Fold this sequence. Notes:
The structure is a single chain. This protein is mainly alpha-helical. It folds into two domains: 1-59, no CATH class; 65-127, no CATH class. The protein contains eight helices and no strands. It is elongated. It starts with a helix and ends in an 8-residue tail after the last helix.
Amino acid sequence: MTFDYNLIKNNPNNRNIVLESVKQHGLSLQYASKKFKKDPEIVLEAIKNSGQALSFSLFQNKEIVLEAVKSYPDSLRWSLNKFKKDPEIVLEAIKRSAHTIEYSPLITNKEFIKEASLLNKDVSLYC
């Protein structure tokens, strides 16, 4: 069964429709109104379905960004700078995909790279 984007496209201001849509297909967050792209509950539900939904979010906190990188490590690229500098978040992304170190300023921190290499030996390929 394919997802019907028209429901959320035609009802971007209906909280119930938006919430149910992002639970089924996280990327449908792109069609929600701005107020729902800022809503922590809706954003978290979208992220749980697809970490890539972070790219459409207008709200971020540590819980949301961690959830995003767990399901889609590349979502680190769309996170706020403060989260790109957060060792816990960056290590979570690196565990799943070594190249995500390229999205973080921690790439220049030799001690951090040493720690990250213990989680994923391929990190050194990107430094």
